[in-house]
Amino acid sequence: MIRVLFICHGNICRSTMAESVFTHMVNTRGLSHLFEIASAATSREEIGNPPHHGTVNKLRREGIPVVPHRAVQMTKADYDYYDYLIGMDEWNIRNMNRIAGGDPDEKIYKLLTFAGIGRDVADPWYTGDFDATYQDVTKGLEAFLEYVMKQKS
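Above: the chain's sequence. Below: its structure in token form.
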């Protein structure tokens, strides 16, 4: 199993979108048996809350099932457990490193780097633009899946 944890600040917008989209991608491609997928926050602000209504609405419009989820915070144990810890922006990456106590095993990544893009995933909490976030997430996840499957073969 390849264990993947998607991470953003509150775990209600971008990381839950990535969790649902990636789950849908691997399910529709017959690869679900290869992956364990989850998401988490670097903060405690939204702990226990469901995905943001904007994320839910965007995923429904795209025909992607929303993974049942309540926001949780990333822990140091998550670093040991997951193979890939994928943050949505530089601020997440800094906080993920702080929570994990560094990245000695080089498991922490920023999502869009898999697509050869250095910028952050657009944050709809501030922009309200869930379409742009979905485009970023999808682009990053397609590239990530290709990367992982190459590593596996």
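The two ends are 14 Å apart (CA to CA).
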